[in-house]
Amino acid sequence: MNWQRMKTIQKLHRGLYAIGLGPLIGKIILLLTTTGRKSGLKRVTPLQYEKIDGKYYLGSARGLKADWVRNIQANPNVEIRVKSLSFQGQAEVVTDQSRFADFIETRLERHPFMLGLIMQKVHALPKRPTREQLEKLAEKEAFVIIEPH
């Protein structure tokens, strides 16, 4: 997906939350607010998420290069807006290949069609990649776990 299209989609998601449709799109999209590592300004990023055992898991297709991930590395205190809830949380960046594979396997179970397409179109993998393929993918990617306060 090209950068301009991604920016347009993110703007749409922020707008839907702003007009009160968070409960509708919040089933798969949350708004993550980080503090800019250089500017110190609040940065809001719409992201797909999974809620697992009361924690919020966010995948980063750009791995450690994503601005929101780099902001978390500099300051792990974040704000989340999901559905009609807003709260603070503590974020942890995870690069462990085994934990990454566990996370993607959970996502594949919960969203086989959507994640299958992502595996195929974005990562050039089969719709149901093997554990070994997922661990290899983890060499370039990361995910974040947020524990609400």
UniProtKB/TrEMBL annotation:
Gene Ontology MF terms: coenzyme F420 binding; oxidoreductase activity
Keyword Transmembrane: yes
Keywords linked to the UniProt accession: Membrane, Transmembrane, Transmembrane helix
Chain segments annotated as transmembrane: 15-33
Keyword Membrane: yes
Gene3D superfamilies given in the database record: Electron Transport, Fmn-binding Protein, Chain A (2.30.110.10)
Catalysed reaction, written as an equation: oxidized coenzyme F420-(gamma-L-Glu)(n) + a quinol + H(+) = reduced coenzyme F420-(gamma-L-Glu)(n) + a quinone
GO CC, one annotated term: plasma membrane
NCBIfam families for this protein: hi_GC_TIGR00026
Protein family according to the UniProt entry: Belongs to the F420H(2)-dependent quinone reductase family.
The protein, known as: Nitroreductase family deazaflavin-dependent oxidoreductase
Organism encoding this protein: Candidatus Desulfolinea nitratireducens
